Amino acid sequence: MKKLIAVMVGCVTMMHAGLALAAGTVRIGALFSVTGPASFLGEPEKNTLEMLVKEINGKGGIKGTKIELVVYDTQGDSTKAKQLVNKLIKNDKVVAIVGPSTTGDTMAIIEDVEKAGIPLVSCAAGIKITEPVKKWVFKTPANDHVAAEKIFNYMAAKKQKNIALLTVSDAFGSSGREQLKTLAKQKGFAIVADEVYGPKDTDMTPQLTKIKGAKPDAIICWGTNPGPAVVTRNVKQLGIKIPLYQSHGVASKKYIELAGADNAEGVLLPAGKLAIYDKLKHSDPQQKVLREYDNAYRKAYNVEASTFGGYAYDAFLMITEAIRKGATTPEQIRASIEQGKKLVGISGVFNMSHTDHNGLDLSAFEMVRITKGDWELAK
Length: 379
Description:
Structural class: alpha/beta
Shape: globular
Number of helices: 13
Radius of gyration: 20 Å
Helix content: 40-55%
Strand order of the largest sheet: 4-3-5-6-7
Number of strands: 16
């Protein structure tokens, strides 16, 4: 854990709205879906930040300056997210913001952070968060099209050409559906079925019955829990034997728990390397930091770390790395994040630029298969 946070310790001063904070407390804000349907995202994100801040403050702060973390629960509600981001900016006067957890919440507050000039590092995956590029907005999960391309490359190797799509009708699902359809056309895949389900739907057998009748080579489901878990159970109930692919949006053990290990057996998905770090080569640049993060999280919360908590880790790392390099104002922090190269995090190795505010490529994911309730590298 000491090495894990070492890169985060090195700040002497910070400034916000022209007010120097050379000593005392540096205030960083966070917006997470701690409760509600997306709590499986927000809870580990909140836990991760609290763990890191506690560790830094326990060592005397950042060269004497303590970090005050202000976390608000959006409950996955975009209206609430918009209210809370303005509270962070106007009342709490934070120097930077981590989150929100979801694409919808993030899209709802972009205008606010852009107007205020406060760096936002989102923990949501939707490609529209950073494309087109917004001056003050970054994100740590890999873009939808990277995950989609990882799936298609694997499917191509397995000679699966006729595919069925089943996507959730929220911001994450709509973005994924758009990327899947675009890439399918580019790569020569035929979409033989294109079905959608609602975020609160509890039975997808009507859509899956149509898909079954279309006789695809494989199904791609795109969403975040609990919907994909329902789809997985329904696939089993309908006796559908073809491969089921899920998105990176379910890359946590919570998905296996919700779907049931027997139902999830054989499901394939692109996952961040945290899920299988013990199976990586020691030469992998992420292997060490992944192991240290997981060990620290297990010690703090008695449960394994999740990819989603890793999104918050990376966001916090970007902010503190910018400060370590000498950034003292929101503009300097923003510029430093944008210029960051070869920053090894939980989600991947980040290489930002003025045209790319995500900075991850295909190497951020490994294709994994669920086997006996656990992950294994897909072959």
